[in-house]
Amino acid sequence: xxxxxxxxxxxxxxxxxxVVDMLARIVEVPAGLIMKVAPPKHHVFxxxxxxxxxxxxxxxxxxxxxxxxxxxxxxxSLLIVPNALDDPQWNRNPDLEHGMVFYMGxxxxxxxxxxxxxxxxxxxxxxxxxxxxxxxxxxxxxxVNSDLKLLVELAERQRVEQELQRAHDELxxxxxxxxxxxxxxxxxxxxxxxxxxxxxxxxxxxxxxxxVAKEETEERVLWNINEQIVPYLERLKRLAADDxxxxxxxxxxxxxxxxxxxxxxxLSTAFSxxxxxEIEVAKLxxxxxxxxxxxGLMSIATSTIDFHRNNIRKKVGINxxxxxxxxxxxxxx
Length: 333
Known about the structure:
The chain is of the alpha+beta class. The chain is built from 9 helices and 6 strands, in the order αβββαβββααααααα.
């Protein structure tokens, strides 16, 4: 159990030394001791610096051999032996080897009730004066017990502070780890967002190009029908020799109109002469795009867009600069 207790610091040992020195001088005995139990031994922990004191800190005794201190610790109470030579219970105890026939001592305990040892005074003769200082010895006992209590409280406080520091360090470590995880996650998220934005931009460009290609295809089909097929159908109907043939040709013409009915209605005759690139430029003009914006979307020079604008104006018949091209094209859609 002793191993679990805090060690006695040097400053406290010095204080206890002053206690036993003062006690021995006041009581007028050769030996004032603080004993410490460490089974199976009981050894001198602090000894008074007084003349005739036979005990030093190297002195130890075996427990349960009839020591005065054995009884003090067993009964947890004050023991006074005026003269061991006159008492059969004590006339053979080990302290008689040093001639100590008088003994007065109290037990010392840790705050949890376990024994630290004893505080005592010894003399080579019956010392009635010493008995009158029983209360003083008890006060010194309380001083030592209070110091032991303080040591335990300080050790417990230190233990708690260390645990709190460990908990604090662990928490800070976890916070740093979590912060790093969140930072990494945010970086990954930003990278993912950038990738998605790039993908969305690419999809928008692709969709725009598909829509343009679709509309250009429809326009070419419509233009080919109107320019390459319908005129010949009209001629064939005029040259048809009988009503039955004319009826078939009229039916073919109606079917072609049904097929092209779903195509954009802005593909009027005015657009039939435009090239696919000019048609795309015309659509962007209708959307309100500037020449610079159209150039950026089509990845060509602004001067090239201006060239196409001039061609469109010529082909749709609005050479006058006072006519707004966007307004005119919008009216055709």
